[in-house]
Every structure is written in structure tokens, then in C-alpha cells.
Amino acid sequence: MSMDTDLALACSLADAAGAAIRPYFRGDFGLEDKADASPVTLADRAAEAAMRRIIGRESPRDGIIGEEFGAERADASRVWVLDPIDGTTSFVAGRPIFGTLIALLQDGWPVLGIIDQPISGERWIGAVGQTTLFNNAPAQSRRCRTLDDAVLATTSPHLFSEHQAEHFLGLAGKVARRRIVYGGDCYNYGLVASGHVDLVVEAGLKLHDFAALVPIVEGSGGTMCDWHGNPLNAGSSGEVIALGDPARLEDVLEALAHQHCA
Questions:
Q1: Please, which residues bridge with residue 98 across strands?
Q2: Which among 34, 40, 155, 185 is least surrounded, fewest beta carbons within 10 Å?
């Protein structure tokens, strides 16, 4: 399949997920806790089921890895990675900063990604070798002269282990305190691609949390890697850096390598 065909399919998946999610937003969404204590709603399940049906019809040989319904044909060379609602806590709280994440992996490497915010109608689309689009216009990350000029975002400090938190605080100490943003999940990475946030650092992410983000950030002129500077793929640990200005990467890695001293 061509990239244009894959992009059209990915957009149809996002459309279907959004149509499944919107009726539940700020409504009766049937909140439950999964075995790992993370929240899930009727909207999560309906959106993933809708996307799986389309993939099964349009590209049945492709694999699927989804947050809610697990893996099918995960050993295929082409695998769709689905997170129907990244930021379920924000969805439950009525905050429209969650997103549907759709990625296509080729031999374990992300080659296509979508962040779709179905309430505000915002969509970022990234593909290897192409400029990232935000609502069909080119997206551009911004340059950052020094870390103390950077806007740093992370979803929650509570998601770090004690060891990871010490390293994150080492980085946060290099950034002006009034430039640190908490909350946002995948939405923060779209903001990196659009030049509003400079840096996102997180840990404990799963493949469905980060695969879609890589082509989006990198297609806007930024970079994504793990905390050691390695590129992200299906085998990555889930310690993730997204950076709008690749020129600052060595500064970020150096700051993360040093533990915070109170």
C-alpha cells in the first residue's frame, strides 16, 4: 500500500473513533478500573472496536495492537497501534485535551501517526518523509536557544518512579519554574509539533502511548528519543523525550543524567 493510501485509512480510523467518542463526552461514559488500576470507559472500547472493524475490512493482513483489546497478528510486518483515548482521566474530567492515537509500524518502526482531538476538531498527521500537518496546514516546531527558555511539559510527576523523578527534577531545575506545564497526555506532543511547547519528558509509556507521536514530532522539525538518546521503536522502554529543537538534545540528555539534589 502507498503512504497516501495508508494516510487515508488512518484518517478514516480517526473519524470513526471520534464519532464513537463524542456521544459519551461529559455524559454517561461507564467508568471502570482495569486490572492495572488504569481507567477505561465505554468510549474507549467503542472507539477501538470501530477502528478494528475498519482495519479488518480494509487491510486484513495488517496486525493490530490496541490498548483495550490487545494484539492480533502482532508479528506482521505492518502493525497498526491504537490508543482510542490517550488521557482517559482528562476525558472523564470533561477536559478536551485527550486524544485518539493511531500509528502504523513497519517492521517495528513508526512510519505514520495521528493525534486526533475529537471535541475541538484538532488533528495532527505525521508520516516519514513528509511535513507534519495540523488541520491540513504545515506544522513547525520552534527553535529554543537555551533550556531556561524552554516550556517543559509532562502529564504527571506521580507517573515517575522515585528514581525517574530524581532525574526529571534534575532537568526541571534547568528550566524556569513558571515554564513547566503538568497534564496534557498526547496533546502536549501536538503542541511541540505546532511550536507552543518545547520539550516533553515522560516515563512508563507503552507502545500505544508513543508510537503515533514519533512521526508527528519529527515531521515538524523536532526529535523524539528515549532518555539515552536512542530512537523509539516497538522495543523501547517507555522513557520518552520529545523536543522541538534537536539542537538542545545534548543539553536535555545531560540534565536528565544528573539526579536532582534538594
A1: none
A2: 34
Q: Nearest to residue 91, comparing CAs of 81, 82, 100?
A: 100
Do 246 and 161 reside in the same domain of the chain? yes
Report if residue 262 sits inside a domain.
no
Q: Do 25 and 124 have their domain in common?
A: yes
Question: Is residue 81 a part of any domain in this protein?
Answer: yes
Per-residue model confidence as pLDDT tens digits over 48-94: 999 999 999 999 999 999 999 999 999 999 999 999 999 999 999 99
Is residue 258 exposed (0-12), middle (13-18) or buried (19+ Cβ within 10 Å)?
Answer: middle
Please calculate the CA angle 91-95-97 and round it to the nearest 5 degrees: 85
Q: What is the pLDDT of residues 120-169, one digit of tens each?
A: 999 999 999 999 999 999 999 999 999 999 999 999 888 899 999 999 99
- Domain boundary residue, one of 138, 163, 191: 138
Q: Which of 97, 91, 101, 109 minimizes the C-alpha distance to 41? A: 91
- Containing domain of residue 78, as a range? 3-138
Indicate whether 107 and 184 sit together in one domain: no
Structural domain count of the chain: 2
This model's pTM is above 0.85: yes
Cα separation, 159 vs 202, whole angstroms: 8
Picking from 147, 117, 111, the residue whose alpha carbon sits closest to that of residue 219 is 111
Residue 27 DSSP class: S
Instruction: Give the type of residue at 151.
Output: V
Helix boundaries (H) for the chain: 3-21, 42-58, 88-92, 162-172, 187-193, 207-210, 213-219, 249-257
